[in-house]
Amino acid sequence: MEDYPMLTKLESACSDLKTLLKSSANLQTNLEKLDDNFDTLQETLTVASRRLAPLQSLSIASKALETRINRAVSPALVLIDGFRISESLQRKLDDISTKLPAQKSQNKRLRLLIKYVDCVDKLNIAINLLSQEGGPSIQRLQEVVEFLSRTKATDQFRTHRLRETLVALNALYETEVDSMKFDGLLDEALLNLQDEFEGILLQLRHHNIGGGDDSGEAEAATAATELGTEMEV
Predict the structure, then answer these.
(1) Computed from CA positions of residues 189, 190, 194, 200, in that sequence, does the dihedral angle turn out positive or negative?
(2) Which parts form a coiled-coil structure per UniProt (predicted)?
(3) Which of the 8 DSSP states describes residue 213?
């Protein structure tokens, strides 16, 4: 072989070529396997995507349902809070009305009356809001309860709780709002304020006729003026 160096090189090149061809064949086999694996992976992803699509739709539907329920529940919660505020103001009115007869100081009595007027004003606003917003709020809640009962879109316990809330809130609205507006403490307070204001006017006329001008009477007149401005009954 030493006499034929070119032949030796040729045989070496041929051997390298065979090795390269073998490696190429192995690479091709590996590529084919990789391609098969890729096809399998793609098929798996496609199946998973098909399975996830209904879940995504369900998630979107669930969020839409939650939004619809919240839009109905939020006004109902505001309505309930309005009843609490009205109840608190009525207790405050009752508390002030019990203090008024026992108050002998004219100035302190007038200051109490000013607080009384402020409380009456706030209660009147609260009751008017209940009267205006109560009907639409209850209607929204009723529509959601009917929808949930008809479609079974949520669990029965949740639907039952919403229905109980609807019944209780509707009963409270029908029985309490008109009562608070026409037969409750608000109506009584307005009558009391009318009597108090007429009494204050008589006292002021009496003081003017008597010509008294001490500082206590001046303060009483100032307080009465403030009371009259706030009342304007």
Answers:
(1) positive
(2) 17-51
(3) -
